[in-house]
User: Fold Triosephosphate isomerase from Chitinophaga niabensis.
Amino acid sequence: MRKKIVAANWKMNLTLAQGEQLVNDIIAAGIKLSEGQEVVIAPPFPYLIKVKQLIRNYPGIYLAAQNCYSEKSGAYTGEVSAEMLQSIGVDFVIIGHSERREYFSETNAQLAKKIDLALANGIKPIFCCGEPLEVRKAETQNAYVAQQLQESLYHLDAAALKNVVIAYEPIWAIGTGLTASAQQAQDMHAFIRSQIAEKFGREAALGITILYGGSAKPSNAKELFSSPDVDGGLIGGASLVAADFTAIVQSF
Assistant:
């Protein structure tokens, strides 16, 4: 049975005190997780060690970094390596978020290197893929996402793929006023799973967790998560409000 995951991506938000309060409020909500359900929290880099301390006694809650660099080590001022993340107990790392692709021009080839380094250090990548508005309008989203998968994941074998989580981001529905329906989310998730099946086999496809990263919130989470190929969410803005985030988690 594949994992069900709700991941909180804080992005570049909150002070340390605010982040600590947010985690404490989430814990205080007493979320009940069933077997196979996980919560992942991805704070900014400076807060990783503190959040790890706060969640260490709560099974089912894991720590993620929002990024890592595509080289093992060296003269890369300001970057953070997968080995560094492993050394402080990071469990997951977000790779290829749409904002990293757009604002920092990250390529599929660079992301493949990040995937390899994360896996080599025992960290599970949350690999993000998804299409912008012009691609959706042209109705070429399947080919666009397939290329992202091919160029960043298809060099792996099925054993390595078991440690990868995929997050589908309909970029055209994030901050644009447009909304992706549960059916549109399900259709793309099913397509992604079909591509994994074609490359890695049916067992790998049935086992991989695919999250929805398109502005999920308490009002639509239950409908989204009830779709057969949607295994949870990568949550942005709603993860900054404890009540909203816990409501989404409880929508499993």
